[in-house]
Design goal:
By secondary structure, the chain is mainly beta. Helices cover about 10% and strands about 70% of the residues. The protein is elongated, with a radius of gyration of 35 Å.
Amino acid sequence: MKTLLLGTVGALAMVTSASAADMAPRPYTKAPTISAMYDWSGFYIGANGGWGSSHKCWDFSNAAGAFNVSEGCHDATGGTAGGQVGYRFQSSSIVFGLEAQGNWANFRGSNQSIPFPAVVNATQVDAFGMFTGQIGYSWSNTLLYLKGGAALTSDRYRGYLTANGAQISDTVNDTRWGGVIGLGLEYGFAPNWSAAIEYDHMFMQDRFITFTNNGTLAPAGTAYASDRIHQDVDLITVRVNYRWGGAVVAKY
């Protein structure tokens, strides 16, 4: 009886060992890793706001440029707000784009004329626009980009008496075209939303402006002065964009 019992236990032990060997842990294979890649492609629309400075230099002159006498320079500064619309296309980490931007502005400044100290020359920029191309490099949802293209400004010029601030010339409205270059850093904080900070410099060149009297010191409409006015503009704006398309795609 004892011999039969021992033989049965031994047989069971052999079967259990064989089953345990069959059930040994299999090698672990790691699942593929999936990472998110932010895609900047698509149409977007947004708003911007910030600060600007228009550097103006006035030269008392004539249309032919036969004489030029510097009347000095000033910075017309103030706030700005506006909007932009554009389209971007991403290829690997390179992003290309086109954009149109329009802004209201309130850049004001003036200086006392050097050769005519009784007169103050005053400038106001009340609007500007930009039509630019872009190229940038993205690190997922962070984009560093350069832009460049055409720019225009809407300017106003006046002459005042230094003594009492009375306006003595007509107000001349001028729209001028020039060029712009800019640099921006943009961050996608949601699948279709992004925020950016941008710096732009506008090269608006020279314009010949002719003023007439407004009737304060001389009959209205008679010749007052003529100036060749040089202008550059610097802008710093914060932007928020909403984009259609692109979003986040899976990358293995």
